[in-house]
Design goal:
The structure is a homodimer of 390-residue chains. Chain A contains 16 helices and 16 strands. The first copy, chain A, has 2 domains: 262 residues, Queuine tRNA-ribosyltransferase-like (TIM Barrel, Alpha-Beta Barrel); 97 residues, no CATH class. The longest helix of chain A is centred in the last third of the chain and has 27 residues. The mean pLDDT of chain A is 96. Chain A is 42% helix and 18% strand. In chain A, the strands form 4 sheets. An 8-stranded parallel beta sheet of chain A has the order 4-14-13-12-11-10-6-5. Chain A has a 3-stranded antiparallel beta sheet with strand order 1-2-3. Chain A has a 3-stranded antiparallel beta sheet with strand order 7-8-9. The N and C termini of chain A lie far apart (43 Å). By secondary structure, chain A is an alpha/beta fold. In chain A, strand 11, helix 9 and strand 12 form a beta-alpha-beta unit. Chains A, B: Pathway: tRNA modification; tRNA-queuosine biosynthesis. Chains A, B: It comes from Swaminathania salitolerans. Chains A, B: Keywords: Glycosyltransferase, Metal-binding, Queuosine biosynthesis, Transferase, tRNA processing, Zinc.
Chain lengths: 390, 390
């Protein structure tokens, strides 16, 4: 058995400023970091086959405990052979704890010191999550990375609210750790809370590192505070975390958010943006975003991007994608989700290469200038010679 | 230039009773017949990438003139390089004439001797189709096979209504032929009308063969008359058509309809059933149909079928598909449409092989007995060893 299978470990390969390039070794394979995790909420990355997800270069995906416990149910997933077998994904899977979704989706929720009782947003049925049950459910799902069950208050919040919430989350983190069953190559991440308060973040980080986890997440950001406040919070939070463990910024974000997160020492990200945008005609590109429903694409025989090798860009024009979205054809979301995830993965590969080469500052400047430049002109990006139809 | 590229021709390979195995040679390649054409109404086979369509073994697909003329518009398709380049499909494409859809979808339609004026079901805008404009539009779409513009009355209809409609369609067929621009490997099919009236069908077939087309379609069936009446109409209609040309039964049907059509001398079929059913959780199998929303599949770790090599069956369980449909996930329709089209193509390959081997009667008996037998028991089809996740 190789070391990667006996212990979940993150190992650094190179640094550039605060940014780190490394590898996360897990029971389900080794993945390069920084990495972006496509979101597979209900056991599927929406509008994507797993072959398509693999084709984008994704190394690790995310599942949602809240959704999966309600439908099809954790025990059912276990009987299907776990989330990997069910979804047809052999790489690592990280599951969130359900804490965030209970707060954002669950109805009639009631928080107490022991956990949260709530009603399903699907059928109104009553459920309860505690640090112990969330951890057990993630075990039944066979998550490679289990997240601690936490409470995540919306921002802005008073310092008092943030403090009591953080303290509750830290007690829950200890209980989550207690409930976690160690298995070779599996791991559990603690979640630093404390909003935008430096002192609270420091106390939270201390509490978690005292317990000791296989990785550390930064929670409670990207909940309405804006990019500037998120970045300034990261500036003082990541240095509080161990240098030799993976760091995960939860629920983030735009390409520019990812770049800023990496520059501040984050290794892992997840967000619904590229998949959700793919279903609403919004394309991410090297030149910012495009809305393919816009009439200006109706007669444009160029692909979305000259630099992309996804199925949409290698075989289809903007005009065709425009038509598919106007006609509400499922193929529109299928092709554009693929494109957006391919872009996110390519972006992370390029950022990682720049860290390894020690050229991240120049790369970051280039990326930001390109995003700001707007869509390619017809001169910069002329009508391509389409390859023969296979 | 090969012969197949200079002239559209159907050539027989073997017969078995009335059933025929052959090849249709076109500018866009040669396809074996009998064949089922997946429907790509608006320039996409719904919920399928073209790579997936190719993987099912489909050889020729269908496009809808009515839908495409309204959105994105024939001229726009032409500027996109034609339907093949737009959709990423190098094989032959047959387009219907729009006549049937004008009658079933168009609003405020007004029929005259010259053509039909109607309002778009999308935005209410006013349009007109005539034999000439329908033929021109199909030319702009770059259809490999152009269909004559016809009028298709719903059944039941009075003999008088059927007669006047058939006579109008025959006059329109002559005008369609006049408007058709011959190109190497491209062709045009006439459409036999006349409802279930033997005399009318005979007069229609005579009118069309006197004009002379590259193939002959049987229209005006599968519009509510029932399978028995459809088959009895085929029994006297196909013998009226030339032995050395392809025959196409429009808008048909279930697997049992296809088998019965082939037994009666039909070479080509199209129908929305496998694709539509794929979006509504209905699976076609060797053992009849299954509704994957049904609770009995919720815990079934077997694939849909033990005999299918589609993506759904080779990688996923019924339990997972059940979950996807219950959760309204796009991947459900994606996987099940793939499965259904794969089943239809496999069925046609098996039927064709039986014609070539001279064993169609036995094969037909086997197929019908299997459809009637119902879903596999757990003994017949035990829980499989799933292959490793790639």
């Amino acid at each position: 058995m190789t070391q990667s299978a006996t212990k979940m470990q993150w190992k650094a390969e190179a640094c550039c400023g605060q940014a780190r390039a490394g590898h996360l070794h897990t029971a389900h394979g080794t993945i390069p970091t920084p990495t972006f995790m496509p979101v597979g909420t209900a056991g599927t990355v929406k509008a994507m086959t797993m072959d398509a997800v693999r084709a984008t270069g994704a190394g690790i995906i995310l599942g949602n405990t809240y959704h999966l416990m309600l439908r099809p149910g954790a025990e059912r997933v276990r009987k299907m052979g776990g989330l990997h077998r069910m979804m047809d994904w052999s790489g690592p899977i990280l599951t969130d704890s359900g804490g965030f979704q209970v707060m954002s989706l669950g109805a009639l929720r009631k928080l107490d010191q022991d956990g949260v009782t709530f009603n399903s947003h699907i059928d109104g049925s009553k459920h309860r999550l505690t640090p112990e049950s969330s951890t057990d459910i993630q075990h039944a799902l066979d998550a490679t990375i289990t997240m601690c069950f936490d409470e995540c208050p919306a921002l802005p919040a008073t310092p008092e609210r943030l403090e009591s919430s953080m303290e509750l989350s830290m007690r829950w983190a200890a209980r989550s750790r207690e409930a976690f069953v160690q298995r070779p190559g599996y791991g559990q991440f603690g979640i630093v809370q404390g909003g935008t308060e430096r002192d609270l973040r420091a106390r939270s980080a201390k509490a978690l590192t005292d317990i000791g986890f296989e990785g550390y997440a930064i929670g409670g950001l990207a909940v309405g505070e804006g990019q500037e406040l998120m970045f300034s919070t990261l500036d003082f939070t990541t240095p509080l975390l161990p240098q030799d463990h993976a760091r995960y910024l939860m629920g983030v974000g735009t390409p520019d958010d990812l770049l800023g997160g990496v520059e501040r020492g984050v290794d892992m990200f997840d967000c619904v943006m590229p998949t959700r945008a793919g279903r609403t005609a919004r394309a991410y590109t090297e030149r910012g975003t495009l809305n393919l429903r816009n009439a200006r694409h109706a007669g444009d025989n160029r692909p979305i991007s000259p630099d992309c090798d996804c199925l949409a860009c290698s075989r289809h024009s903007r005009a065709y994608l425009h038509h598919l979205f106007r006609a509400n054809e499922i193929l529109g979301p299928m092709l554009l989700t693929w494109h957006n995830l391919a872009y996110y993965q390519r972006l992370m590969r390029e950022i990682r290469a720049a860290i390894v080469n020690g050229t991240l500052p120049q790369k970051a400047e280039e990326l930001r200038a390109s995003w700001a430049a707007g869509d390619w002109s017809q001169d910069e990006f002329p009508q391509p010679d389409w390859p023969p139809v296979p």
